[in-house]
Amino acid sequence: MVCIMSGTRSKLALFLCGCYVVALGAHTGEECVARHHEAESYVAAVYEHPSILSPNPLALTSRQQALELMNQNLDIYEQQVMTAAQKGVQIMVFPEDGIHGFNFTRTSIYPFLDFMPSPQVVRWNPCLEPHRFNDTEVLQRLSCMAIKGDMFLVANLGTKQPCHINDPGCPDDGRYQFNTDVVFSSNGTLVDRYRKHNLYFEAAFDVPLQVDHTTFDTPFAGRFGVFTCFDILFFSPAVRLLRDYEVKHVVYPTAWMNQLPLLAAIEIQKAFAVAFGVNVLAANVHHPVLGMTGSGIHTPLKSFWYHDMENPNGRLIIAQVAKNPVGLIDAENATGEMDPSHSKCVHFIEEGAKGWKESLCRRLKTESQQQSEPGIPTPRPMHTTPWISLDVANLIVSNESWKSLQQRSQTACKRRHGRMCVIRPSNILRVLMEDRPRPKDRSYQERGFNSI
Ligand SMILES: *[C@@H]1O[C@H](CO)[C@@H](O)[C@H](O)[C@H]1NC(C)=O
Ligand SMILES: *[C@@H]1O[C@H](CO)[C@@H](O)[C@H](O)[C@H]1NC(C)=O
Ligand SMILES: *[C@@H]1O[C@H](CO)[C@@H](O)[C@H](O)[C@H]1NC(C)=O
Ligand SMILES: *[C@@H]1O[C@H](CO)[C@@H](O)[C@H](O)[C@H]1NC(C)=O
Ligand SMILES: *[C@@H]1O[C@H](CO)[C@@H](O)[C@H](O)[C@H]1NC(C)=O
């Protein structure tokens, strides 16, 4: 389901044009050619998908009808996998809601759900063992794609899990319904799943009783962590994965509506990579009419990204990324002495991020020195790109940036909404750093998240 609701509600548009132009990320250059030989890096892909949506997600359909719709999206996935495979891609990420869509009710989504056994309990290759479980058609197709493309594949789907009435969390209809990311290894084995914890107004889904801290190991780049969309703004599981599980790469399916000034997709993804020193492989759906665009492969120093509010087409982004994102040690020696913004930064994150605040601040400084390097996105006019080039990380180190951002956002807001915005600088980082339960949606909004 959609993460960030925009202030204006636009009519749903379907992009049913037969031509899904496959274009490689404009910023990738020749970097994705020679790869297997370079042990220090791997080749990743994310696909921003203009998903084919159900014309009426509230209507009740049959499993057969649901599969027909989902297979149209899966056909496109498969084409993208084959294109990526030719470029030597080793891991590929697809967006949240990309197969089934969004805006369902608990009942209307049911025909779209696959049954999902726990990968911790059952070792299963859906492509090679299709008859082992019923209602697993989507998992089977994804598993077969991983085999065909000879790559790790990460995708998002709705899953169902029957529960017993004695289970205190069991919903009245006798099943859990989860917004689920799945990970297949290159031989099609279902290696893990992540069930979204921080749901964003998703009536169709349940929050799992325990938070999944999902990681998976790859032969080419070590350990990856998984979380979804809105999760990126909360301590658990996102920050905990990095702190406790030694994750160096994050795969991040999302269905994100951009919202000024601080909740633009690219901005958040990039800020997360910079602030935590990890690689983030982020795949969004592409529905400009709904404000949904913005995917990228983000390293702490560089971003390969796609954001287009005018083009109806999706985009396959391929990039070569370091196995070990530039370490904090390197950043440490590369930076000179402290500048005034450093102490401000330390002060700001004192409460939340004790263990690594020093490293974080150094990294932020290093990043800001890298601004002019090719590959770092450059700002575009606000009316075409509601993305602010100053990322969240930079915001907290620079009062000047904050002030100019505020001015620019005010102008943009007035143009868009005809009124002033309430902007509170520290909300995002404060929430991210806090290790406590997510506030109820209402108080969350009161704290300024949906303030424009
Ligand atoms: C989702 O549903 C809400 C109302 O429930 C509606 O305003 C919105 O336009 C819908 N969005 C899509 C993409 O169908
Ligand atoms: C799948 O469903 C069919 C028909 O309902 C049933 O006969 C079969 O036992 C089921 N198989 C499994 C593995 O549950
Ligand atoms: C398939 O991949 C999984 C995960 O990488 C691995 O554990 C397993 O051994 C592989 N199976 C075969 C038959 O290669
Ligand atoms: C950074 O500097 C320290 C102290 O001078 C040194 O011990 C360390 O090896 C250096 N690290 C790197 C990665 O150069
Ligand atoms: C930012 O600068 C203004 C004056 O230029 C000052 O009043 C304010 O306290 C500063 N904010 C922070 C967070 O340092």
Automatic annotation (TrEMBL):
Keywords: Coiled coil, Glycoprotein, Hydrolase, Signal
Coiled coil: 60-87
Source organism superkingdom: Eukaryota
Domain (CN hydrolase): residue spans on this chain: 56-335
UniProt keyword annotation of Plastid present: no
CDD domains: biotinidase_like
A Gene Ontology BP annotation from the UniProt entry: biotin metabolic process
Molecular function GO labels: biotinidase activity
Catalytic activity field: biocytin + H2O = biotin + L-lysine
EC number of this enzyme: 3.5.1.12
Signal peptide start-end: 1-25
Biological role stated in the UniProt entry: Catalytic release of biotin from biocytin, the product of biotin-dependent carboxylases degradation.
Family named by the database record: Belongs to the carbon-nitrogen hydrolase superfamily. BTD/VNN family.
Stated name of the protein: Biotinidase
Organism listed in the record: Callithrix jacchus
